[in-house]
Structure formats: structure tokens, C-alpha cells
Amino acid sequence: MKYGKTQIFAGAGAAPSREGVLLRGGLFRCAAGEGRWEALNAGLPENAEVHVILVHPTDPDVIFVGTQDGPYRSTDGGDHWQPLGFPDRGVMIWSLSVHPTRPNIMYAGAAPVALYRSLDGGDTWSRLPKAISPAHCERAGFDSRVLRITVDPNRPDDIYAALEVSGVIRSSDGGETWSDMSAPLIALAEQPHLQSSVGGRHCGHCEGMLDSHATAISAAAPDTVFLGLRMGLFRSDDRGANWYDAEIGRFSPLTYCHDVVVSPHDPRIMYVCLSPAAFSDDGSLYRSDDLAQSWRRIDHGIKANSTLMALSVHPSDPAQVYCVTRGGQVFGTDDSGGSWREYPLPGGVEDVYAVACR
User: Fold this and answer.
1) Helix count (H) and strand count (E) of the chain?
2) Percent of the chain having pLDDT more than 70?
């Protein structure tokens, strides 16, 4: 790897604020322990909207980002970027994933909902024509999007896509065909405490149960899928055929879940980002050491200033964990939560969705 110190990356979108001021998007990098952010733009689209950052699991100098004009790749740790052989122009990429056993295979998720696959490590891509949105909660003015793509390490032909806002779809043949796994989530929304709607979508009170943000699968739990969404953390122990509430509220007063991650170092360790709502002034990071049976808060001594959006575990050092809030605050630990340091992004950088480290 080019750099000796841990490098932290954060990605932001460019969108009008509630005051009508254009927020600054882009990709940023800083060295852990220093806190000076550097804008990375050599080769990226102007005012890039970066909603996902992926450090390649076998080569940390290779980094992918999703932008408003498809995926881009850097082979020098982020200094320079090149567009990839993508079949469609002007596509907003919200998710990227590398196959856990065949790293030459990659997947990308877009808005409006679409899925793409590469068979050559990201050089060229093709659209998966049968990966379409079930359209449970779509509305005019909001492009439903693929926020997470997860390949099951136990069943490497099984792929799950979390759709915001339209539930979960699954492929059992490597992406050739897809099935809607959302019916049990809609059924759960009949329970009063799982009903939620922000208005304008035809699915009514079930909208909160279809507001999917992240999926995660552990090698230690065959056939089990974890799903983070507006109403909390849910799981399926039968590949999405049925879902049930993991009852994260037993451990946290905050239950809006925007990210759930299995540690790359121990398949029993998991992390979740919890907040009050999509737009809020609070957030917290929880860790489980027993595959989501119990949880404990680990971000002590630091206060999230807005909704906690994403987290990243260092690929070679399990003691390092970094989080990002929607309002542009990054904070991390290098001692498994014993202490934390804040890395606020430059002024005007908000609508932050992505964080990564290497």
C-alpha cells in the first residue's frame, strides 16, 4: 500500500439544502490522526456525487466509487480516477460489491433501480435486465435506489439487494433472475409499532418496512440475512422467505438503522448505525459479539451531530472503525472503541452517505 498511515475516505452528494443552497459533493481523504481532508477529483466528474466507496478486498490501492456518471476506479489509492466501461451514461450509482469468492465479479446498484455486473474486475459492465424494482413504494420525484448488494459467502450464487424504498429482491443464480422477498415485510407492517409513512407513496403504512438501507450476511450463519431499515434491524433465517424483528430496541433507544456490517475479521462480530430518523441530530454505533443476539453501544465520549449513515471496519486492523453522519462528521477509533477522534468534513459538505478506510 502506498501510504503508511490509515487513510479515511468520505463521499458526499451535491444536493439543494433545505435553505435552497447547493451543498458541496465529492470524495475526500485524510490520514487517521491528522484530520486534514483533501478533495480527490483528478478524473472524477465535476462536483461528483459519491454515495458509495469500495476498497478492493485483495488490493487496498484499488478503490471504486459510484458517481452520477457510473462507477470510477483508482489504482493508486485515490490520487487519480478513471471511468469504467459502463453501458449507460448518466447513471447514479448507489452501491458496489465484490463477490466474496470470485473477486473478478462485481455488482453495482443504481437509481432508478437497476443492477449491473462486471466479470472482469470492473473493466466492463453489463446491465442485468431482470433485476427490476417491485415498485411497492415508488413515487414521482423520488428515484428508488439499490442501497446495498450482498453476496452470501455460504451460497455464492445468492445475491440480495436492499431497495430504498421498495423492499428486498434476491437472485439465486448469480444475478440472472430475481425474486421479490418483500411480502413478509409488508405483512409485518400490520403490527401497529411497525407502521410508518412519510406520505405520498401508495403503499401507505407499510412504507417503513420497505425502506431498506442495508443487508449483511455472516459466514457463521448459513441462510441468515440481516436487514437494516427504517423500522429497525430485521433478520431472515430462511434466505428471505420469512423476516422477523431482531428487536434492536431492547438495547438502544434509537432504532432507525441505516447500516449493518459484519466484521471482516470475525464473522460473529457485527456493527449497526442507529439514529432517530433519516434527518436528525443524533446517532449511535452498536456492536454485537454474538451474531446479533445482544448489542452494546461503543461510541462513548463522542456525540453524533446528525443521522449516522455508514461505518467501515479497517480491512487489516479490527481495532479501527470509522463512521460518518449525514451532516459531514466523521469519527473513528483505533482501539476498539476505547477512545474516539472526530474528523469533521469541510464546510458545505453534507448529504454524506459513504465512508471507507484502508
Assistant:
1) 1, 28
2) 94
